[in-house]
Design goal:
It is built from 9 helices and 9 strands. It is α/β, with parallel strands linked by helices and 297 residues long. The chain folds into 2 domains: 158 residues, P-loop containing nucleotide triphosphate hydrolases (Rossmann fold, 3-Layer(aba) Sandwich), CATH 3.40.50; 117 residues, no CATH class. Strand 2, helix 2 and strand 3 form a beta-alpha-beta unit.
């Protein structure tokens, strides 16, 4: 996102409890952001005034806004309005994870969910997560960056965040993120579009290819050499040629495309890499590629 010279860059970190907001805040602090966490909602407009009045001091700011602020949507809207009224448009980074992952994290850390409640009104962790998803749904819809942290290591999370924030998107362009994944491990929550490549022959059943990944040339040749591969890629490219201008016209600056096969190790990686090559050649905007299951394997 390109700001006017001298305009502070503000990243609003939000999302589900247990999804990694504190970790991301620390990551941004390490690369020079001033980070503010758990500020009462009533003080967020004052913070916006402080940021705009001292741009030299607050050149890059990360603000964690979540359900701890009270009425999170109201607090978030007040902060966003206060910043935009001063010429600062915040980037919204929304973190989430699958329910079972969040429940496990709360169990391991023994932390209470902020929406668990007390006494007779106390909720289970699963019920608190469901309520939090409902409360934050509107904020998620406005997010410029969505990251599913379910299966990300600390290094991978840092890479996702840094790449997302470094991307510069000009007029009539969009940042494209491609994620290869395995259906047996679940669909990435942040995906805007999902393509299933399991109709292709699986290199896993070829003994000499099983141990190689979709980044190896032999697997690439096997997948792309299949009769339907080229046509499938042509169809995706044609669909994106048609839809991307409409996404841009609607104000979207980022699109996440997930491509899945059974294990996420062969076909999906090949197709993601080839689609990325085509998109870069078309110069629609910056293209980032992540292979979710590569380290798992």
């Amino acid at each position: 996102m390109t700001e006017r010279p001298g305009t502070p860059r503000v990243v609003a970190i939000t999302g589900l409890s247990g999804a990694g907001k504190t970790t991301v805040a620390k990551l941004l602090e390490d690369i020079g952001y001033v980070c503010v966490d758990n500020l009462p909602g009533e003080l967020l407009t004052d913070l916006a005034e402080l940021i705009s009045s001292e741009p030299g001091r607050f050149e890059r700011v990360a603000i964690v806004v979540d359900v701890r602020a009270g009425d999170a949507p109201v607090a978030f809207a007040a902060m966003e309005g206060a910043l935009e009224g001063r010429g600062i448009r915040p980037e919204v980074l929304f973190l989430e994870a699958r329910d079972e992952i969040l429940i496990r994290r709360f169990s391991e850390t023994r932390h209470r969910h902020p929406l668990s409640g007390e006494g007779p009104a106390q909720r289970s962790v699963a019920a608190a997560i469901a309520e939090e998803r409902r409360i934050l749904a509107e904020i998620r819809d406005e997010a410029t960056i969505i990251i599913d942290t379910s299966d990300l290591s600390h290094r991978e999370l840092r890479e996702r965040v840094v790449v997302a924030l470094e991307e510069e998107v000009g007029p009539d362009r969009i940042a494209l993120q491609l994620i290869s994944f395995g259906y047996k491990h679940g669909i990435p929550l942040e995906a805007d579009l999902v393509y299933d490549v399991r109709f292709m022959r699986n290199p896993y059943y070829e003994e000499d290819l099983r141990g190689q990944s979709g980044l190896d040339e032999a697997v690439r040749a096997f997948v792309l050499g299949q009769p339907g591969a080229g046509r499938f890629l042509d169809m995706i490219a044609a669909f994106l040629d048609f839809t991307i201008p409409h996404y841009v016209a609607e104000g979207r600056t980022r699109l996440t495309i997930a491509l899945g096969c059974t294990g996420g190790y062969h076909r999906s990686i090949v197709i993601a890499e080839e689609l990325a090559r085509r998109l870069r050649a078309a110069d629609r905007g910056p293209v980032a590629v992540f292979h979710r299951e590569l380290e798992r394997a």
